[in-house]
Write a structure and sequence with these properties.
Length: 265
């Protein structure tokens, strides 16, 4: 299966991340490091009570709800999956956070917010999936107030780019094929008018997530009904890709970074 347009990539990835399979493999957070790395990102962008925060590619709302509860901020989440927006909205209502957390069906490259209206923006393991990363970075900068901060946590590649065997559709869904080097990410933010203030290496979080995916795929394979050839093939293919990704992390060809950048003007 080949994806011909940016819109195809976006819709495919949005659907994949809202699927039950993604929840099984990745847990609710859908990114390396889970809640612990989300809290580190929130501390790095210096969240304070009463601020307005934008969570880009908010998924099922796990990060937005954590930020609202633990940092006393108001959060808007945007996601391209209608199913994820509905699920996140229901989760906010169930948690009693509907007054401070709202979710919107929107494209990260065309954020539905006015200029300079957000105190902080977070984007976890998603920027690598956006076809036009420069446009997304420009949107990040546009909606930030002066002095506001962007916090990015994302998959990185080495100077040679995506390792062989991973630059294909299943790898897009695994946050790999669109990844860039840390320096390229910083360059995109700089070109958008943002100043990088912190860069951290968190490849250990990616290695842990890949290991968890491998374990769950093996469990699913063991529990699958005999004769379900299509499901078995998908699991075997997933295990092959996960093994390649694990090797790439151990060799330094794949990583995971945290970047904070400030809007000065």
């Amino acid at each position: 299966m080949s994806l011909q347009t940016a819109a195809d990539v976006k819709s495919c990835c949005a659907a994949a991340y809202s699927s039950p399979a993604a929840a099984f493999l990745l847990d609710d957070s859908l990114h390396p490091g889970g809640a612990a790395l989300t809290r580190r990102l929130a501390d790095a962008v210096e969240l304070r009570s009463g601020q307005r925060v934008l969570d880009v590619a908010s998924g099922r709302g796990t990060t937005a709800l954590l930020l609202a509860k633990e940092y006393a901020v108001a959060v808007d989440g945007v996601d391209l999956s209608d199913a994820s927006v509905r699920e996140a909205t229901a989760a906010a209502q169930h948690a009693g956070r509907a007054a401070s957390v709202a979710f919107h069906l929107a494209d990260a490259e065309q954020l539905p917010f006015d200029d300079g209206t957000v105190d902080a923006l977070v984007c976890e393991c998603s920027w690598c999936l956006f076809p036009d990363k420069a446009q997304a970075a420009a949107e990040f900068a546009r909606v930030l107030r002066a002095g506001g901060r962007v916090g990015i946590a994302d998959v990185t590649v080495g100077p040679a780019g995506v390792p062989d065997g991973l630059a294909e559709l299943p790898a897009w869904i695994a946050c790999l094929a669109g990844a860039r080097t840390t320096e390229e990410y910083v360059g995109l933010l700089t070109a958008a008018g943002l100043t990088a203030t912190r860069v951290e290496d968190h490849r250990d979080a990616l290695a842990e997530l890949i290991g968890r995916i491998q374990a769950r795929l093996k469990l699913a394979r063991a529990l699958s009904k005999s004769g379900a050839q299509q499901e078995t093939h998908a699991m075997e293919r997933g295990l092959v890709l996960a093994a390649r990704a694990a090797q790439a992390v151990s060799q330094g060809a794949l990583g995971y970074c945290l970047i904070v950048a400030r809007r000065d003007r």
